[in-house]
Design goal:
2 copies of one chain form a homodimer. Helices cover about 35% and strands about 25% of the residues of chain A. Chain A has about 400 residues and is an alpha+beta fold. The first copy, chain A, folds into 2 domains: about 160 residues, Creatinase/prolidase N-terminal domain (Creatine Amidinohydrolase, Chain A, domain 1, 3-Layer(aba) Sandwich), CATH 3.40.350; about 220 residues, Creatinase/methionine aminopeptidase superfamily (Creatine Amidinohydrolase, Alpha-Beta Complex). In chain A, the strands form 4 sheets. Chain A has a 6-stranded mixed sheet. In chain A, strands 7, 8, 9, 10 and 18 form a 5-stranded mixed sheet that branches. Chain A has a 5-stranded antiparallel sheet with strand order 12-11-13-16-17, with helices on both faces. In chain A, a hairpin with a 3-residue loop joins β14 and β15.
Amino acid sequence: MPHESILLNTERLHARMSKLRLDAIVATSPENVTYMSGFWALPQWIRRGPQAYVVWTARGDGEPEIITSTATLDLIADQDIWIERVRRYGTFHVDESAETGTDPVCRRQMELQAQPDHGDALTALVTSLRDAGLTRARIGIDEIGLMPDQLTELRQRLPDAALLPAADVFRDVRAVKTEEEIARLARVAEITERSIDAALAVARVGASELDLARAFHTQTVQEDALPVLGCIGFGERSALMNVQPSRRTLEQGDVIRFDVGGRYRHYRADIARIAIFGEPTREIRQKHRALLAGVERACELIRPGKRVADIYAAAVETVRREGIPHYRRNHVGHGIGLDGYDAPALTQTSEERLEAGMVLCVETPYYEAGRWGLQVEDMIVVRADGAERLTATSGDLMLVTP
Amino acid sequence: MPHESILLNTERLHARMSKLRLDAIVATSPENVTYMSGFWALPQWIRRGPQAYVVWTARGDGEPEIITSTATLDLIADQDIWIERVRRYGTFHVDESAETGTDPVCRRQMELQAQPDHGDALTALVTSLRDAGLTRARIGIDEIGLMPDQLTELRQRLPDAALLPAADVFRDVRAVKTEEEIARLARVAEITERSIDAALAVARVGASELDLARAFHTQTVQEDALPVLGCIGFGERSALMNVQPSRRTLEQGDVIRFDVGGRYRHYRADIARIAIFGEPTREIRQKHRALLAGVERACELIRPGKRVADIYAAAVETVRREGIPHYRRNHVGHGIGLDGYDAPALTQTSEERLEAGMVLCVETPYYEAGRWGLQVEDMIVVRADGAERLTATSGDLMLVTP
């Protein structure tokens, strides 16, 4: 079956599994299930509790398998999924009709529905591992998607297996993106920038944060992305790091801070821009320029092999030297992908090094409570020859005429 | 401090805690933290991993407390929260300025920031329980928001406490809504219905499922709600129970199935309607009428004290009698609130009874693979004198002229 896209970095997964001597690895969280298989399991994405898994065996040790509820088999049939084997659990009633066979999606759904029902999610997982001969194996379990009692029960039902927490293995594998992932991230970055433009297009005296948020999210959904992060704050509210849009209306001289990003085909954006409604003060210009210089310095240094901690140090030092001597910050960025905070985190204490194919948000936020918050955040890809920006606009101050 | 709204059903919570002899109960999942306190902790809502808690002690046993990361204190300060005590953990840099004191939100944020840092989420929770004298207590823990290793660690660090899983206690408490919750659910139901109308307004030959989805979500965000559930399918794709909008374009006679609902101030909608693009066949009319009759029969029977299993039986029998003799269904509805599937579930085997203040989605979906899916789903409140509809439109077939 040809696939338009593979999200999974198969080489990196197998390298990590081999290093940890894992016979299999099991994805349980929505991000990792989608990542491993292409399967977006709606109930798992919009609620906590519904379970879908991917069991991936070591190279040469058999086929990977998706485990999901019967109520989601239509999504398996309709999506571009690169895993053939599916194990279902639970009852869901869909009637066959004379016309079922003529539509390939419905036909595939009914084929899957005709397979045995494995009862419940955990039973299906246990039988999958048993059928693969893995009852005495070393198995990495993405622990984040399971409910606590499920992990306990899994240990009881597979007493001879070594079940190792593997959420961090998935984070590590996902840190280096495939080209399909980068294409989606580039698209959602563009959508987010256009959504900022759409929000600023309604900026006028008396317009509220909510007015700008509506315009922002409208552009996002018009481009087939979904709203996720929508921090838009004016004036003193721009200093609230997680500011949620309110009825506060625009006044001359206000800072407008955006820390925003939607989700497009499951991939996240996270971009920050500062607009000024009117004329910026000299202090705002200077401090913003310092923050932008910090991001630019970080981007200059980005290349494969570079220590993350060095990027952190250079960004913070630059901001301090260029205009905010007391600048302090836990991190100056993070990976982004299916999750808004993928690996690596750009911190002072990290021992990681950059690798080609990482996609990073590089950011230098600065908050003065009661006055304003300023922030530059860009999305970039680590390429062999340096940082490739996914954002089309620079992080310069955006001036809006009242 | 006056509060515009309390989501929590305090009486019901204390009754359940008393019945289970709980000295305290701890919310850990985003829904339950918001429910108990009014606090919407952004990182916890958009990602898995970030932790915020509410510790609620038995009546007369001290004040409840919110536990959250320092990086979210602005949200505490800016939101309408009915818990005064906050325990923070972790580092986040916000600078004070001469103007901090003039803005009440920033002032509150900096007051909270000036409190001690309790290190990490679990340490903050353990010290909170210790400070409340609960190290040997019976404590209900909402297990769904914790990572598996966190529950294990909590047991190790509180070896003399009885830690009981309590996610089901929260589900049970949340089943009976307060008036503020009902008001939000009514609003999101209205928004969802208007979004269906907006989608149908762009229905024409050649319009795609994606075109209708864009119009749907645009209306939703224009009314300050966020997209969550957006199943919109045409023709044979309407038979896919979780259908995600595609490029499939409208043709004469197509069924258009909506199973949709956004989130407004954290509260969900879930409504289904069927439109016909052109003239419905006699079979579609008849089967749809049977499904609608099932919902209407269920709604007629709804009142406090009624057995859920009886509602199920009456709805299924009605659908069978009125036109789909082979009709089968796991449930004919479910509660709705902060979660899309609140308690109770309207199943054959439930031993629950309805109570005044429950908000239910009553639904009778029917899928014929390869042909179409038909569905009626309404949102109602259980009142002393019966079902009060939150939907303005009937579930009748909506006829769209090509």
